[in-house]
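Training component of the fellowship. As part of building independent skills, the fellow (R.M.) carried out the full modelling exercise for a liganded target. The chosen ligand was thymidine-5'-diphosphate. The inputs are recorded below so that the supervisory panel can assess the work.
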Amino acid sequence: MEKRGKFITFEGCDGCGKSTQLRLLSEYLTENSIPHIFTREPGGGKISEAIREILLNGKNSEMTDECEALLYAAARAQHLHDRVEPALQAGKLVICDRYVDSSLAYQAYARGLGKEFVTKINAFALENYLPDVTVFIDLTPEAAFARKQGADENDRLEQAGMEFHRKVYAGYKALAQEYPTRFVCVDGNQTPQEIFNDVIELLQSRNCL
Ligand code: TYD
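Fellow's submitted model of the complex:
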């Protein structure tokens, strides 16, 4: 039987440079013939992508915070079943763009739903599928916004309000304190290549590569 694969998640505030890191990692894993899948939340499968469409649709602004948190958790349960578990069982490395820590940072901390509620509705994920490593690209929303300035007038960072993103960031920092072994901060103020070197070093040190 294949050895169970490792589960790695990436987290960060909007605009932190996560997508660039995921692209670099994808190239690295392909070049080194490391069996893996890339997936994302919310989404990653037929039903969870349909839930993503509901969640990220700007027309659904009347959605309550509770409904939002429950939909993220529902999409997650389906995604774990459809994509994550089969790949882990096949011995593949699973790289997921956002996971349960996003619910803790965005819904529990920033929206103010509280840790207890969000932990409860995500118990299935937290108890059965806690990542081996969570890479947090540590960049403040101010720094992320300064980098993007002028690039996009309708920038989501600005739309959601800097105050909200500050709370998300504070939420992530609290998670780093709470899960010091699993949840690792990588300095997002460096060049993309320097950040990537840190990511590779971290994943190697955890026997993920
Ligand atoms: P996406 O376009 O994938 O953004 P990014 O490139 O920043 O990852 O949108 C995902 C959004 O969903 C992002 O703003 C964070 C949010 N989100 C939550 O609020 N809770 C969650 O549990 C997850 C997985 C995502």
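The panel noted the following from the submitted structure. The longest strand covers residues 133-138. The chain has ten helices and five strands.
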